[in-house]
């Protein structure tokens, strides 16, 4: 776990991250409607657990800004006991997801959906923290609940000044040196300013500095039927957030790539432990993890040091913690929320792919107006629609040679053509199909049976078909039936193993020559032997023109 030559760097990195995490954990607990000390206890205990058994060596676990809106909602609906039960169920579900080995699916989520998800979290942070920055009474919790213009009379300008001071320190000081904990220094300056001026402003207040007692959540007093869907949403949100953070850490560091499934199980254990000690939901924290990497962390020792330091600060620095101004903590969260909204990314998407920019915005807005799970699902559905639209084109064209069989195919085709009697239909044609054959593209195959006379043998080159779904199989079956009715025998070549398995499993190979897939076009042509020259030709179509398909430069595509 510990490399001797990097012990000092990791210890210093852990100490720095602890000073970054201290105000964040306090602010997040208060933003959820919980006592401030719960944020510190939760961050210390869960951070140590995830540091020891997590799938990412450098990930720092603790209360996370993405979980604040849902945690607050659960607390309001089900009370503190309900939140503990939801956190416990969240941990169980995360362990099961990890055991099912589906953590790797995080890499399949489009960037537009991920960006919209993060932007929505930032917007929700703004919604909850602007009232604290303005020094409004505690009963005004959200921007959306601020009463018209009446709130202006309750505005605390000194609190606004304190918040702005902390925001400036949070943004500017790390630019001077990466190890400077700007948020913590800003809060220290705010405490000195309040004391020097003799002003009063809302602060953290009295906190409890004692080790928590271990106890199971009180399930008997909670409506599990209404709580369970929210626990599922919490588990999905915490899992997505943790894995996104782990992916970001991989990109920023030289550490070995994380194990998604191990990380999910570790996060599940951390949430179980949090519920047993009266804590709050946790996830992998991108802000603290990025701070660790930037400060030179290279082993698990950094995250472990952060947890031990947090616990020590709770007991040794409690008087100072109690004096931290709420407006200053809100200022830190507002900076974090702003950074979660990747403005450059959405503008770049608009230039490159406007539909993906729309997915970004729609995902964010759906989360803000409904909930996280529904918003992410909407983003995924829109992304699938976009994918289907992009892949809807399947090209069907006559070829004179397969690209990897340049010498043999033209000779064999020419020999078959010379054997065709004058005026008879072409004996053999090779048709290449390019693109996936699925529900959005299958109509491109219909062009094969439309138009003029068809050859006696039609060889399908499927080397360019990456996949075929049930709709595509049924469309292919219909084409083969129509070809058979018109006297054309179908031959299939060069299909991938996956496509071949689908064709065989569906019984489609029973309708083609030799009931198998030939490995090359040349092999298929050779297998025809010497067709009987006197064989009856296929009756020409009433349409005098030759079908567009049987011209070498022709292409048919689904619209």
Brief characterization of the structure:
The chain has 559 residues and is mainly α. It has helices at residues 7-31, 36-53, 68-99, 111-133, 157-176, 182-197, 224-252, 260-276, 286-294, 301-316, 318-322, 326-340, 343-352, 354-369, 372-390, 408-418, 470-485, 497-505, 521-527; strands spanning 61-62, 283-284, 395-398, 428-434, 457-464, 489-493, 517-518.
Describe the secondary structure blueprint for this structure.
Blueprint: H1 7-31, H2 36-53, E1 61-62, H3 68-99, H4 111-133, H5 157-176, H6 182-197, H7 224-252, H8 260-276, E2 283-284, H9 286-294, H10 301-316, H11 318-322, H12 326-340, H13 343-352, H14 354-369, H15 372-390, E3 395-398, H16 408-418, E4 428-434, E5 457-464, H17 470-485, E6 489-493, H18 497-505, E7 517-518, H19 521-527
Parallel strand pairs: 4-5, 5-6, 6-7
Antiparallel strand pairs: 1-2, 3-4
Helix pairs in contact: 1-2, 1-6, 1-9, 1-10, 1-12, 2-8, 2-10, 3-7, 3-8, 4-12, 4-14, 4-15, 5-6, 5-12, 7-8, 7-9, 13-14, 14-15, 16-19
């Amino acid at each position: 776990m510990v490399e001797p030559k990097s012990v000092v760097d990791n210890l210093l990195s852990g100490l720095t991250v602890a000073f970054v995490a201290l105000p964040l954990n306090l602010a997040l607990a208060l933003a959820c409607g919980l006592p401030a000390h719960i944020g510190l206890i939760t961050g210390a205990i869960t951070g140590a657990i995830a540091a020891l058994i997590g799938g990412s060596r450098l990930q720092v676990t603790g209360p996370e800004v993405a979980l604040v809106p849902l945690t607050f909602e659960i607390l309001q609906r089900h009370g503190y006991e309900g939140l503990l039960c939801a956190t416990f169920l969240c941990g169980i579900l995360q362990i099961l997801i990890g055991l099912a080995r589906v953590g790797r699916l995080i890499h399949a989520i489009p960037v537009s959906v991920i960006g919209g998800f993060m932007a929505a979290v930032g917007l929700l942070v703004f919604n909850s923290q602007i009232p604290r920055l303005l020094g409004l009474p505690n009963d005004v919790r959200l921007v959306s609940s601020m009463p018209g213009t009446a709130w202006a009379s309750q505005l605390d300008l000194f609190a606004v000044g304190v918040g702005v001071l902390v925001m400036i320190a949070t943004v500017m000081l790390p630019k001077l040196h990466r190890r400077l904990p700007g948020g913590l220094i800003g809060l220290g300056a705010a405490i000195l300013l309040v004391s020097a001026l003799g002003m009063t402003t809302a602060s953290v207040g009295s906190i409890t500095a004692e080790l928590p007692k271990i106890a199971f959540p009180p399930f008997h007093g909670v409506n599990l039927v209404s709580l369970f869907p929210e626990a599922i949403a919490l588990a999905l949100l915490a899992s997505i957030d943790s894995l996104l953070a782990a992916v970001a850490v991989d990109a920023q560091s030289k550490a070995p790539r994380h194990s998604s499934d191990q990380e999910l199980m570790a996060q599940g254990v951390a949430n179980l432990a949090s519920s047993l000690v009266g804590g709050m939901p946790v996830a992998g924290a991108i802000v603290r993890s990025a701070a660790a990497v930037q400060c030179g962390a290279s082993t698990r020792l950094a995250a472990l040091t952060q947890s031990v330091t947090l616990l020590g600060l709770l007991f040794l620095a409690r008087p100072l913690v109690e004096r931290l101004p709420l407006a200053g903590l809100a200022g830190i969260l507002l900076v974090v929320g702003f950074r979660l909204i990747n403005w450059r990314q959405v503008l770049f998407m608009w230039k490159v792919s406007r539909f993906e920019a729309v997915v970004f915005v729609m995902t964010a807005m759906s989360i803000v107006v409904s909930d996280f799970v529904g918003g992410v699902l909407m983003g995924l559905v829109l992304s699938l629609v976009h994918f289907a639209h992009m892949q809807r084109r399947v090209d069907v064209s006559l070829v004179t040679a397969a690209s990897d069989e340049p010498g043999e195919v033209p000779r064999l085709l020419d020999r078959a053509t010379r054997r065709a009697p004058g005026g008879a239909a072409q004996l053999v044609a090779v048709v290449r199909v390019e693109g996936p054959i699925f529900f959005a593209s299958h109509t491109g195959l219909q062009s094969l049976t439309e138009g003029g006379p068809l050859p006696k043998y039609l060889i399908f080159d499927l080397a360019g078909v990456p996949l075929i779904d049930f709709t595509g199989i049924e469309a292919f079956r219909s084409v083969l039936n129509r070809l058979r009715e018109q006297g054309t025998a179908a031959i299939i070549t060069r299909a991938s193993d996956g496509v071949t398995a689908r064709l065989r499993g569906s019984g489609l190979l029973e309708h083609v020559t030799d009931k198998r897939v030939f490995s090359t076009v040349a092999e298929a042509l050779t297998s025809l032997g010497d067709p009987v020259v006197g064989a009856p030709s296929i009756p020409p179509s009433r349409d005098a023109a030759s079908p567009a398909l049987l011209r070498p430069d022709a292409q048919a595509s689904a619209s």
